[in-house]
Amino acid sequence: MRRVLEGSFAVSHAVELARVGVISAYPITPQTHIVELLAEFVASGRMNAKYLRVESEFSAMAAVIGSASCGVRSFTATSSHGLALMHELLHWTSGARLPIVMAEVNRALGPGWNIWADQTDSLSQRDTGWIQLYCENVQEVFDTMLVAYKLAETVSLPVMVAMDAFFLSHTCEPMDLLSQSDVDGFLPPWRPVEILDTTDPKSFHSLSPPDYYMEFRHKIQRAMEEALAAYVEIDAEYGRRFGRSYGICEVVPAEEGARSSMALVTTGSVTGTARAALAELAREGKKVDLVKLKLFRPFPQEEIRKVLAPYSRVAVLDRNLSFGSGGIFAQEIRAALGGLEHRPVVYSFVAGLGGRDITPETIASVVDRAVREACPADILWVDLRE
Amino acid sequence: MACPGCGAAIAMRLLLKGLGEKAIFAIPACCWTIIAGPFPYTALKVPVLHTAFETGGAVASGIRAALDMKGDTETRVVTWAGDGGTFDIGLQALSGAAERNEDILYVCYDNEAYMNTGVQSSSATPYGAWTTTTPVPTAKRSRKKDIIGILAAHGIPYAATASIAYPEDLICKVRKAVSIRGTRFLHIYATCPTGWKAPSETSVRLARLAVRTRIFPLYEVEDGERFTITLEPDLCGIDEYCKAQGRFHHLGPEDMKRIQEDVDRNWRRLNVLAGKC
Questions:
Q1: Choosing a second label site near A357 at 20 to 30 A (CA), which of A106, A196, A374, B16?
Q2: CB contact, 8 Å: B101 with chain A?
């Protein structure tokens, strides 16, 4: 069914269609619309779920840790400071192997207060054991939510679906909403292996001495590695059923059937701008391929090497920053390419922090600089006022 | 896995006697994280979800929601937390659960300091007590937090104190709590001979003295307003109680006087609330 929905509401609809049983909610701009619509779904009886109106993001994650530990499909959503507050429990969730799905609206962290788009919030949670999937548009947000539940429950790891503040959360776009029977066919009820059960009482997450702890961590890493193949398979199945799949990354060549010498790597909603900007540049004869990266954790090292190694220059556009290091996607891509004998020069462009616009002109300037500078600095700041 | 004379071990045994096996426990970080036994063992016949320090109220809320979704309204959801996890770091989540009147039984076993980490002061530590973070001569200069008062102010259906020295009273209160729906809170006084610097064999005697001297009165509060004293204390004077514990050995007459005044004031206040004067 074709609908015009903002990204936040696309998440809410996906949560309803996924037959989520427990939702925990705490407000933070720009995530709030997601849980507001879910509150209406539950209040009207349209959705059969428990809605926990908790007193903090920390308790939002704690509550779904409790509900998922009983084997009930669970959801929460947050953004920025809320995600940072959850940090301890993000580790707990993955360590507990709970397939919780969380919508995370990428927003800048203060101070100063800033409610606009910036990916540093989710990227600074990269070591917490959560699978991370980034989205370009409203349709992709909806589709990714459903893929996320199947993926989470397949590998017993939590999944974070990341979407840019306002550009996605508050922007209405036409999209295709699936029917309940379509979603039921794709996403069967979760069949948990171990749950809290009085007829088979077990203790979960007891003191784990050095004799055991390392093996637990090894298993989480193994699950992350398995998540790569699982994601590809589930994404492909979604594509077969509904005609849309996204892959680990998408390559958009400047010229059909050819490979340019330079690639621009983007994530999230800026990809849409980059598509238009690079198409315009191609018409002017400046050929740059677009590589949209969707999966960040587990980091797809092999895929990155395969896709990016043939280029001589790779410009990475990061709407995020690791202080003292640089753009986070650029770091990871540099690390992935590091072992290769012939590897491209990686340009780390930091742009659009705290919601500053990344326009087609911004993209054109990034491409120009990558063409001009043979030995780039560690960080190339974009549109920075001196 | 408990220290000799551990009041928290006795408290759990009594709680489970009153509760039965149809219960799921959430245990935030506390002494019982250790007492319950390390992986792959467990000392309990009920399912346990060990969880992060400040999550007791919220995790239990999530478990309750999930059980309700599964149509299981029979299984009781119990949070079992220490005083640090209740009075301090877990107070926010507990307050949230109480405000929503979640159908959970929250039990705080109170040994009056962070004992698992080596006797650091919490807001349940009484005035004048030595701990490793309130060393003599700067022993704790503030009073113990009135946790029952805080919970009662939420208007929850049931809040009560109990003591390991009065098993019948404790079990009665557990059974009463189980018969009620909504947020129920039990505050169990659980001696810690290790942290209180007292011989392990005095554990139950100290708990009894605390009740008899009105330091830890036994009472309950229904719907945040109906206060009932469940055991009349029969002793006046805190000397014997304090002298039996190394954590109070440094106290001079002025300190003892202040503690006694606090005890007397609290007792008068409680009697007023219970409609006794």
A1: A374
A2: no
